[in-house]
Amino acid sequence: MLAYRNFIKRIIQEKDAQYQAEIEHQKELTSENIKGQEDERKRIAITVHDDIGNRLNILSLWLNNLNAENQGSSKKIITSQITELIDSTRNISHSLYPVNLEKLGLALYLQELVTNLSYRINVSLYIDSSYERKDIFTEVQIYRVIQEFTSNVIKHSTASEVSIYIKKNPKHTTVILTDNGQSFDYETANKGMGLKNIESRISSVKGFHKWKNKIGKGSRIIFNIPN
């Protein structure tokens, strides 16, 4: 009888320990998400102040100094600044929320991402013809994971190529992201915001993932999302 009580007590203690560990994990994720949001707000604020703000000041100066003698050259500069302002504003808008994703769907929106990345890295995109649109929240999370992965590759890897593969299976949709860079050892790597954001977004849509990296040969993440 005593042995049984001790057994039950040990089981309860183990369950309590698991519960506390899960609470701490959730607290850590929440803290990291808040920090990530603040970092993103800071980045946007700096972009607005340093980029858009400065361009508007330049435009103001050129408009104030506009006269008949320099009208031709000033017009070219003003037009150039306005074009760059439009691009900067669009980039900020996309970083806040992929506005056109809801209208275009994930497949077309990813093609736009690939086009935007093409001047920095070679990206191959394959989306199985059987892929069916998901709810907007799920598609946003898939897009953000792909966006985060490609951004990390460009920032931290020596990769020249990235592959994006999406296929619908009977029970789930599989996404495979691969690069040919230097890679990293997942077990010993410092789990920065990039990796945590990727894994947090996958978890938010009840998905599961696995990293398959080869040092010096590239990184690969495979994640599945329920249909």
TrEMBL record:
GO biological process, one term: phosphorelay signal transduction system
Domain Histidine kinase/HSP90-like ATPase: 139-226
Catalytic activity: ATP + protein L-histidine = ADP + protein N-phospho-L-histidine
The keyword Nucleotide-binding is annotated on this UniProt entry: no
Coiled coil: none
Signal peptide interval: none
Listed EC numbers: 2.7.13.3
Highest taxon of the lineage: Bacteria
Single GO MF annotation: protein histidine kinase activity
Keywords from the named record: Kinase, Transferase, Two-component regulatory system
PANTHER family (alphabetical): NITRATE/NITRITE SENSOR PROTEIN NARX-RELATED, NITRATE_NITRITE SENSOR PROTEIN NARQ
Protein name (Swiss-Prot/TrEMBL): histidine kinase
